[in-house]
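Incident review: delayed structure delivery

Summary: a single-chain prediction request sat in the queue longer than the usual turnaround. Root cause was a stuck worker, restarted by the on-call engineer. No data loss occurred. The affected request and its eventual output are reproduced below so the record is complete for anyone auditing the incident later.

Affected input:
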Amino acid sequence: MSLTPSTPESPPMNAVAVVRGPQAAPVARRTWTIVGAITLALCAGLIAVSFESASLDYARTARLKSHGIPATVTVAQCLGNIGGSGSTPAGYTCWASYRVAGVHYHSVIGAMGTFASPGTPLRVVIDPAQPGTIELASAVAASTPTPRVYLIPTLLALAWSAVCAIAWRRRRRRRRS
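Output delivered after worker restart:
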């Protein structure tokens, strides 16, 4: 393209030359509306799952504290975990064998931060609703069911509501115009 002043036959000086292919078509407003609606629906689903997770965590902590079955289990195996870089230790995953109501279980011991040799007896609390789930008795004693587990899902729900209100107002203004 030359840098000569534009004439009726030549394009303006600030025009962009198309190198290859046709010019890109703009994305329609309806497409963005559909993408926005799908995104808001996915966010609403994520918030619902967050509330459900918080509710189950709260109930599980309360159940272990009030109705948990204290027991002593024997460590069967304990493996060290490493961090993302591969050079930093990140705790241990230990398995234990135990019986509840005549049923034999082989489960991961929750909240293990230290190594336990195979054969080591550990005090745990068994979840009465899920006997295959056990937590260290010291971790259960240190935990408390708190409504703070609902804080993040509530903040997400408020942010989602604000975004929905803004989108609704913009859509109404556009329709009035």
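Verification: The chain has a mean pLDDT of 86.
Action items: add queue-age alerting; document worker restart procedure.
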